[in-house]
Amino acid sequence: MTKRSAPWPMYVPEGTKNVGTARVRDDSVLPQMTHAQREIYKRTGNPPQSSALDDPLDPFGKTIASCAARFEPSRELMLHMQSKKPPKYRNTKCEHNGIKFDSQKEMSRWFHLIQLQAAGRIRDLRLQVPYVLTARKQRDDGSWERASKYVADFVYFDVDAGKEVVEDVKSIATRKNRTYIQKRKQMLAVHNISVKEI
Q1: Mean pLDDT (the chain, rounded)
Q2: How far apart are CA 89 and CA 103, in angstroms?
Q3: How many Cβ atoms from other residues are within 10 Å of residue 198's Cβ?
């Protein structure tokens, strides 16, 4: 590390553009504080958070606003900047009568199961049913290990087969998810339930 040749605080003559490799900021082109902002600064000692561009009497506001208008991004760029990151599996979350579904496929399966229940082929239809795979336990150091759960999309009693069915709506991609595969195996080991994938 090299020593500074000039004492600190450094004096920079007016009109200097660069000092070494550093560029000198020109504060004269920046808008000054409005009267209200100066009063806030005097009373609190904190610089105001609002911009001086909000003041209609500010002489620099129009200049900076006109410069900003020249660099206004296009509509396509604005839409691109505002768009959210798409879901990992490209599913579309939806809602019907206050019930939230992770995908449209799951919602259509719900409608189909309601029709089957109305026809008497299934009964006791429930959705988002949790199953505990490993119970909550305390470690040696006193902290707690959370319980591990599997939440089934649909659970119902199939009248024709005479047994309870646990269903999960999965796409080809989500069936390969390691966490899901592990929980599906634990459902079989712990509860002796084979998850039906739709």
Answers
A1: 78
A2: 10
A3: 13
- In percent, the amount of the chain with pLDDT more than 90 equals 38
Amino acid sitting at position 131: Y
Tell whether 133 and 188 lie within a shared domain.
yes
Asked if residue 123 and residue 187 are part of one domain, the reply reads yes
DSSP label of 93? -
17 against 137, higher pLDDT? 137
Say if residue 101's pLDDT is above 50. Answer: yes
Give the span between the Cα atoms of 36 and 42, in whole angstroms.
10
State residue 52's pLDDT score: 47
Catalogue the long-range contacts made by 31-39 (C-beta closer than 8 Å, 24 or more residues apart).
Answer: 31/58, 31/60, 31/61, 31/64, 32/58, 32/60, 34/58
7 inside domain: no
Asked if residue 111 lies in contact with residue 132, where contact means CB atoms within 8 angstroms, the answer is: no
